[in-house]
Amino acid sequence: MDLRKLKTLIDLVAESGVSELEVTEGEDKVRIVKNPAPIAAPAQQFYAAAPAAAPAPTPTSAAAAPTAEAAPAEPTGHAVKSPMVGTFYRSPTPGADSFVKIGDTVKEGQTLCIIEAMKLLNEIESDKSGVVKEILCENGQGIEFGQALFIIG
């Protein structure tokens, strides 16, 4: 793997919300880890918080809040999830109309958004027909694998 590709991968990790990236190209294998020190810090806090009664509810309530938000979203419709890590875009080009808006009727296979990953633009298609009830990401937001992008009812 040449230095230009490595530099591009390092820049991608630095600019995104990704904390770790591993790429295999032929026999070459590269693993890039962003901020390894903070990864150890939460583990230390977790072990320190477990014996103490007061700090334990804070992580529990923080963990319960996303679950509470995600739980109502699932029953109200079908969640279209991200198949990759990247940057979410609602339109094909800056300034263009969005692929879909809340209230639009979509068909299975219709393009909903674009996810940019490693300088490639990937069209994300609806895996179900229905009406777009919610758009869960902001334009230009970094997203993770498996993150819900849209709710279709």
Highest CATH level, the class of the largest domain: Mainly Beta
Query: Per the principal axes of the C-alpha atoms, what is the gross shape?
Result: elongated
Strand content: 25-35%
Give the C-alpha Rg: 19 Å
The secondary-structure class comes to alpha+beta
CATH architecture of the largest domain: Beta Barrel
Helix content: 25-40%
Helix tally equals 3
| Pattern of helices and strands | HEEHHEEEEEEEE
- How many strands, which pairing sense, and closed or not: the largest β-sheet? 4 strands, antiparallel
**What is the terminal-to-terminal distance?**
45 Å
In the residues, how many domains can be counted?
2
> What name does the CATH topology of the largest domain carry?
OB fold (Dihydrolipoamide Acetyltransferase, E2P)
Write down how many β-strands occur, each being a DSSP E stretch of 2 or more residues. 10
The chain-level mean pLDDT equals 78
Residue stretches low in confidence (pLDDT < 50, at least 5 long) are 37-52, 70-75
What order do the strands of the largest sheet run in, or round the barrel if closed?
3-10-8-5
CATH superfamily of the largest domain: RNA polymerase II/Efflux pump adaptor protein, barrel-sandwich hybrid domain
